[in-house]
Amino acid sequence: MLSALKRSEELTSINNKNFDLIVVGGGITGAGIALDATLRGLKVALFEKQDFAQGTSSRSTKLVHGGLRYLEHLEFGVVRAVGRERKIVHENAMHIVIPEKMILPIIDGGSLGEFTSNIALKLYDFLADVKKLEQRKMLNKKEVVEKEPLLDAPSLKGGALYYEYKTDDARLTIETLKKAEEKGAKAFNYTEVEEFLYDENSKIKGVKVADKISGEQFSVFGNYVVNATGIWVDKMRKKDNPNSPKQLHITKGIHIVVPKSKLPLSHSIYFDVGDKRMVFAIPRFDIVYIGTTDTNYDKNYETPEFGKQDVQYLIDAMNRIAPKANLTMQDVESVWVGLRPLIHQEGKAPSELSRKDEIFYSDSGLLSIAGGKLTGYRLMAKKVVDIIQKRIKKAENRDIGQCVTKNVKLAGGEFEFDYSFVKLVEYADNKYDEVKQMGISVAEFKKLFYRYGKNIDHLINKAYEFYNDKNSNKLSWIKAELWYLINYECVLTISDYFVRRTGMIHFFVNEILPNLNDVADYMQEILGWSDEHKNQQKEDFLKTYKQATEFV
Ligand SMILES: Cc1cc2nc3c(=O)[nH]c(=O)nc-3n(C[C@H](O)[C@H](O)[C@H](O)COP(=O)(O)OP(=O)(O)OC[C@H]3O[C@@H](n4cnc5c(N)ncnc54)[C@H](O)[C@@H]3O)c2cc1C
């Protein structure tokens, strides 16, 4: 259990202890490495300086995709590897990686003609080994407009229908970490690796960690240390060796959220912006999010900044492809900003930079990994742990075995049946039948089911308890969810709850303020906060809320 209530005790218990592997960074890359290594029998500790996934891994386009666009740059290897990986990620976390129908409109004067789109998608089907039912289908203009009336514009020539998968990046990260923890890894949020520790031969032998909650410091030793800190990889490498060269190129991508009533789409759209870039519009619940931009970035990493022009770029792009929507700045409910840790390539513009991953070796033994995609996290983890496997074999003549994550279901995805979307929906329907007498709507229940998968049972049991204890139906479910998140997902702040564990700040923004006091009160009760701490928490959260929603 990744429990907030046991965190402090667990952290104290590992002070001065030795691990096989220390992972620095609790984004999807670090989470994947922790899981892979733990499953190969290694004793693993992971430290994350903010909340889990608070870096780039909660700020992506939230697609498990092969990167159709990378075909343009002839990155066949990336498309092949990551495209094939989609199916594995989807089958191992079927509650949070859901098939998504995408429409690729073909526009007069656009960079993608009918012929090129057809060939590119055919190649994509082949490289990504797309299953027959999900292979691309070319559409004429009438067929596109029947599916998406908003796309009806004089410049529309036709389109293509194909499939990707949509996910919740922060939840994919936490489900990976929960599985690693279940298998024996120790993972801590709000713990910053401040320094590396070295032996007499200048080889890395551990880390000095600061607990951001208590202010205490710990030393933890590890035979191997991996730097999986995303955009902070260069900074960490400099801590290890001030002469380390810059390896990363950081670019910024923003997404805007508008109500579905203003942009009523029923498919995701992947469209040409006209400046050699492509943008997604993705409907989810009652909103549609649009993104992303891709521009150089050199400002604050912890709270990435953006400008009105970034928002306007996406509004203009959307209005070009769906003029009838007539979106304006006032329609934007919230914004999120992510920073890409791309591998530096001399003289290349942001959108030309490869999305491949790379491992950097340091003389101290520190391994660093950056680049890549959320979708390819399992393969990146395998690459890193394969190197550690070789080092262990050489140093200790011990064989830790091969990667097994291909067949390991993430937390919440451990259903008894093999992947079938129909069965998953049936399972959710049956669960709903069990709880509907508590007055929860199907929509509310499904929202929770597709957040927690098989672990919905924990919430159901707890919701019954609160309900029988005379809480209202709505409050029973809010408390049950918080109880689960605190006990199983180490939620320590109000932002952890509204931003990363539930995504409410973007997907259900209107539900936040009416529930804020109840959430703060229950967190105070269960986490033992003082009134002062609770008020500080609310203030901190409102700052985050304002950054996401009040930008004009
Ligand atoms: C706008 C945008 C859209 C994207 N869309 C997609 C998409 O749709 N699909 C896809 O597959 N990929 C997508 N990506 C790429 C994907 O999001 C990233 O490749 C991935 O999230 C990177 O994960 P990471 O774990 O390497 O980095 P991060 O998630 O940033 O994790 C690194 C962590 O290290 C922590 N850290 C740093 N320093 C320390 C320290 N000293 N001690 C402890 N912890 C530390 C940070 O707090 C951070 O949480 C997108 C990226 C962006 C920016």
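^ flavin-adenine dinucleotide complex. The first helix runs from residue 7 to 13. Residues 24-30, 47-50, 54-57, 59-63, 65, 192-193, 228-232, 236, 253, 292, 338-341, 372-375 surround flavin-adenine dinucleotide (CB under 6 Å).
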